[in-house]
Amino acid sequence: MATAGAAASRPARAADLPTDAAIAKEVRDEFLHCWEGYKRAAWGYDEVRPVSGGRHDFFAGGHTFGLSIVEALDTLWLMELDDEVKLAADWIEAHFDPTVDAEVQVFEVVIRLVGGLLAGYLCTGRPKLLSLCRTLADRLLPAFTKSPTEMPYRYVNLRTGAVSGATSPLAEIGTNLAEFGVLSRLTGDDKYWSRAKRASLAVAARRSSLGLLGTTLNVESGRWTDTTSCAPNPPVDSFYEYLWLGSQLFDDQELRDLYRLLTNAVLKYQLVRPNGYTYFRQVDYASGKALGHAQSELGSFYAGLLGKGGDLSTAREYYRSWTTTLDTFRVLPEAFDYESGKIHNARNDLRPEYVNSSLDLWRLTGDVEFKQSAYRYLQGLKSNLRVAGGYTVAEDVTTSRMRLGDLTPGYLFAENFKYLYLMFAAAPRFDYRTGLLSTEGKLLRGAVRT
């Protein structure tokens, strides 16, 4: 792997890039390449297998929610693809069923479907989307109301309300503040926000004397089942993100103070700078003792979060460490060990977290560095993961010719291309001053409707 200092010292020159307008068109064209591939092979199903032309049920076998359509809706709107917006919203209103007899993962339904329907409503103003969103959220509430600790169970049956999954990671307990809070604001019913906030506060109350949190809790007993503090890696990543996001969306000082307290602890006990890199080690939440050196691509979002939360210098350092890895492999591996350099997981599941940070840090600073690296990210995907039917995951990014899988994750329609488009398009439908996106890239504030 190249040294972090080499990437950090590379000068940022606008001349290295095509014009913003040309890149925005390129991004839009690539999004449409994926969208048309999905429409041809898997319309109405959750996800497409773009190599074989097959389909994939994401939430429950034999049940589809049209996940990719819901994920794409606000991206289509931001890109001013209004015929496609109508096509997608019409399908959702006619076919989306929030009451199917299936056990679903609460976390995934909240960030993908509740968030997607909310963003679709905020962008289009179509009231049926909000009605469907509210019905779906009501079907999720038993995961909260049946828990003796107010921290939600992982799974719920949308038809029966039966719950399961008592051991839950932090991200799944707390990544609902934004979606449920916006839903409460739109409907005037506080029950969604109050349940979400009480769940997050219940987690924060179980922090150690160092201010650190573990990884997983038993939501029935309230006891930690894994006391490793692994932030910003999954499966805790977006718990911290939503403390910040909730504080911004709802001007909530309690969440703002908790974000600062917990972030200060992560920076004090987990931040390390080996050989010019900036990374975060895993430690015991009670003692701060080092336990591991793993870095997950999903944690690369943290550069943007740190910047938004006021730690811009560390945010830049962490982002540049990830940029070095991107420039080494062209497409980021899922996980590696920063001490040994060993790749723990050579896959790439078309992850958006790095380019999410690109957008966040560019919005904060205006620095061309972030546009340059985001464009290299796009070219890495385009050169290696583009297929006739769209884009697909990679099974191994370390080989000279990457070995490909056969899946377009639904979040590709919600995140990767949206982040890139917003960086380069000067999108008239997005308020660059106040706009806020969820962890799944859903536009929850800042839709400019005319």
Automatic annotation (TrEMBL):
Any coiled-coil regions, as ranges: none
SUPFAM superfamilies associated with the record: Seven-hairpin glycosidases
Record keyword Nucleotide-binding present: no
Organism: Kitasatospora atroaurantiaca
Subcellular location: Endoplasmic reticulum
Transmembrane parts of this sequence: none
GO molecular function term, any single one: calcium ion binding
Lineage, highest ranks first: Bacteria, Bacillati, Actinomycetota, Actinomycetes, Kitasatosporales
InterPro entries: 6hp_glycosidase-like_sf (IPR012341), EDEM1/2/3 (IPR044674), Glyco_hydro_47 (IPR001382), Seven-hairpin_glycosidases (IPR036026)
Keywords associated with the record: Endoplasmic reticulum, Glycoprotein
GO cellular component, one term: membrane
Family: Belongs to the glycosyl hydrolase 47 family.
GO BP annotations, alphabetical order: carbohydrate metabolic process; endoplasmic reticulum mannose trimming
Protein name: Mannosyl-oligosaccharide alpha-1,2-mannosidase
